[in-house]
Amino acid sequence: MELSSRITNITGGGSDGWDVFYKARRMIAAGTPVTELTIGEHDIRTSLDILGAMYNSALAGNTGYAAIPGSDTLRNAVAERIAARTGVPTSKDNILITPGGQAALFAAHMGVCNQGDKALYVDPYYATYPGTIRGVGAIAQSIVTTPDTNFEPTHAAIAAEAAGAVSLLINTPNNPTGVVYSAETMNGIARACQDHDLWLISDEVYDTQVWQGQHISPCMLPGMAERTLVVGSMSKSHAMTGSRVGWICGPTDAIAHLANLATHTTYGVPGYIQDAAEFALSQGCVTEEAIAAPFRRRRALSMQALAGQNVIRAVPAQGAMYVMLDIRATGLSGDGFANALLDAEHIAVMPGESFGQAAAGHIRVAMTIDDGAYLAALQRLISFAQDQIE
């Protein structure tokens, strides 16, 4: 007997990209203190008010099977949020509640890809993207970007890989680069999808973390709402990473089929978690801005720390909770730098190579510890980089 190729080929036969993270965790388990700047986990936890809403809902008996597409009230709340942000009329019938953004990404690809279809994604990418595509039985094909274009995909680059493809996955604000795609980029993406009849899967989990520029959801663009599946999540916007609650927004017929898929896979999201998410959304932009504020501050601290030196260059940090740093001047690869930094300084960052070859020679730094500790770690990182060329 053999396991399916979908399972055994998820990582494409290579690393899953988390080697430095695992190494850091082994060091911590062995008693070595490590400053972790690896994963996108807030240094604050879910607010007591949101947890209170979750607790009260559970005490009220909402611990049984919940409505699989999501409760009407939560779907309405998500729809209202999207309509307010985009100006696109959106109803609960456009919304499927999922167990987090990752489940939404998997379901969206399952919904549009047949076995053996080519599905496109942008390199650099969040580490799970190619595995998600392979996991649904599709062929993962990257659109390679370059630092010269701030890692934004061009119409020409998409068109060059579009033959035979059925979908394109994008992410803005972007993880790992921190780039917010420009209007020119978004219009180019929309044109390529229309020219080549592609579904567009838009991962927008960082839409509340924009420091420069403007987040543009592709569903806002002419002719795109009917071919776009938007993935959202409470994880980053409300520090609810462990609650596992997200959504897909898309055409009503697609959402109806995806709800049927949920019946046969996740069987929905617990009612008390949905009620907590509804409460969180009801608190409005003030809550979202408070969750984003530490990363806005640390982004400014990052720019200040990097000023006045010429060894490390920051990719424009326009959004999300990361800064991507170009360390090629040290002569080290991203992997080499991250491992050496961990060994020498006990600071853990993610190598750019964890997010694709386009980010080789870079590292991703998560701004996820308190301001003082973060600034001190970044200054040590800069000094370490300078030592490599002296």
Indicate the topology.
Elements: H1 5-8, H2 19-29, E1 35-36, H3 48-59, H4 72-86, E2 95-98, H5 100-112, E3 118-123, H6 129-135, E4 139-144, H7 155-161, E5 165-171, H8 183-195, E6 199-203, E7 228-233, H9 234-237, E8 246-249, H10 252-263, H11 271-282, H12 285-306, E9 313-314, E10 322-326, H13 334-345, E11 347-348, E12 350-351, E13 362-366, H14 371-387
Parallel strand pairs: 1-11, 3-4, 3-5, 5-6, 6-7
Antiparallel strand pairs: 2-8, 7-8, 9-10, 10-13, 12-13
What's a quick, concise take on this entry?
The chain has 390 residues and is an alpha/beta fold. The protein contains 14 helices and 13 strands.
How many distinct helices? 14
- Given helix and strand content, the structural type is alpha/beta
* Mean pLDDT figure: 96
CATH architecture of the largest domain: 3-Layer(aba) Sandwich
CATH class value of the largest domain: Alpha Beta
- Cross-sheet strand order for the largest sheet: 2-8-7-6-5-3-4
Radius of gyration, whole Å:
21 Å
Q: How much helix is in the residues?
A: 40-55%
**Poorly predicted residue ranges:** none
From the 3D structure, determine the CATH topology of the largest domain: Aspartate Aminotransferase, domain 2
Major β-sheet, in short? 7 strands, mixed
- The topology string of helices and strands comes to HHEHHEHEHEHEHEEHEHHHEEHEEEH
Shape: globular
- Could you name the CATH homologous superfamily of the largest domain? Type I PLP-dependent aspartate aminotransferase-like (Major domain)
Give the termini distance in whole angstroms.
56 Å
Number of domains: 2
Work out the number of β strands: 13
Q: Please indicate the percent range of residues in DSSP E strands (runs of 2 or more).
A: 5-15%
Assembly type of the shown chains? Answer: single chain
